[in-house]
Amino acid sequence: RNCWVHLTRHLTATKPSMIQRVMRALRGGGCTPTKPMDAKPDSVPAMNEKAGGAMCAAGITDKAEVAKQKPEAAKITPVAAIGQSEVVTGDTGTTEAAKLLEKLSNGLHLTRDLTDEAETMKVLEIASKILESGLPLQDFKDACYGNTEGKNAGPTVLVSAVGSAESKIQLKETGSFHMICIFAMYGEQNRIQKKTEHPNGQDFIRMKVRQLDWLFSGETGKSWEILAVDDGCPKDSKTLARKVIEAEGYQDRVKVLDLEDAVREGLPYFQERGLKAGCKESRKGGAILYGLYTAATREVTADEPPLLAMYTDSDLSTDMSLCGLLAHGVLVGGGKMSMGARYGAPETFLVKPPDFGPSGHPQSHFEQPNMMKIVIRHYVRVRLLPILKGIYDTQCAFKCFRAADLLSIIIEVRSLGADFDMELLLCALSAFHKGEGTGSELCVVKPTLFTEDFAESNFMASTEDPDKPYKTYASMNQALVQMHKRYIDQASSEAAAVTDLVAFADGITWEAYKRMILKLEKDHKETLFDHDFPLDELKAATAE
Predict the structure, then answer these.
(1) Of 36, 154, 160, 339, which one has the greatest count of Cβ atoms within 10 A?
(2) What pLDDT does 273 receive?
(3) To 10 degrees, the CA torsion angle through 339, 340, 345, 346?
(4) Is the pTM of this model over 0.90?
(5) How many CB atoms within 10 Å of residue 18?
């Protein structure tokens, strides 16, 4: 057995894409050593009862479902456990955690359907089983998180459940606190409904409540509430939300705020940001700021527990059961704030329904349709705003603060648009920065699983404007220039060192930006965040 352990560890570290076919070949699983792992989906090998295979072990038993999966996309196998864990049992070296996951994953699909209530609840059910087992959490990660290339992760529900279990474990380590959970309500007339009422319905208010109920259950002195903020939705999302709240009796824990009230009351903070009747100037940013402002101005007595405020997206892309990670980052982890990350680090996962399961880092980054745009944004960002160094997913809408710190942070935020998340982070880090420390030292970043919601996204290219992503990312780079001018002393050596880059980023049109991205994609293909492009190469790539 020791020889087998050493062999599989070696293969996991050096040739992770080979390890599954070696296992099958040696155990008679219907795959020979010469069978390529990137075989076409219609050539999935037969799987016998003894060895099973990647798909059957992951609980994918429907033939139609198997046919559409990439052969190396998912597995809960003994090899995954042996390669990374000291704890082994039985002849094959399967960890007890891997055995349990194999049992729990029966019938699960590789990808995720955010409109499926049963799947949403299954995440919490499996997370509870993981916790009840008492087995080391790392064994569960080793069994289903895939390899170091970001490939071969298990079914989305399973991977998500492991993250939820970790969140509940970390929540138990915190002291008492109250958390205000904030999200915007613009254009949510479809997702707020049940799937039986609309094809894209996620019933997200009820689901968020259930996720938070599960997370906080059994805890003493820890509580939560939700603030859903409407900023002028023309489809009357707020009325739909209030109907759900009333029907379920959520009034004591879930409230709907109306940004229009802040404008009507003449609150100077929102007047200074140009908000007028109807709130058309707000593109999510105004709604989140109103929620944070509400949390910041709430009176808290000395004998009350700390008040935390987090914000997220309205949909179910990031599970609210992960809020324990955020609370831990602030209350235990030593961070001035905390945030999630969808990509850019180990244990982050991106899921792209309906055909793909969870991709880890760096595979998730390489699969991004906007990969090079994100790389270039990061290239500009860390040079113009060095305090953000070490944080890759600045746009992640899963951030948490102490409410007592919020007024000093949001007073500096000006953007209400696409760069809002990044400017809020920048303002927070600048407020916390006392002459030392970079972003990753001031902010605890927690890896998460994020499921894309392409059906209702407002950010993806459309048939009306396929160039929308180029325009959006080009505007982000120009916004970075303005932030650089606001937050960096222009007489400093820091500013002098990036004069040429500032001029380039500020002057590039979206058409030239598009040419640059297409040229870089052609020349570099898969490119990680910290690639050091010569500025002359970027300039040359913009040429017609």
Answers:
(1) 154
(2) 86
(3) 120
(4) no
(5) 13
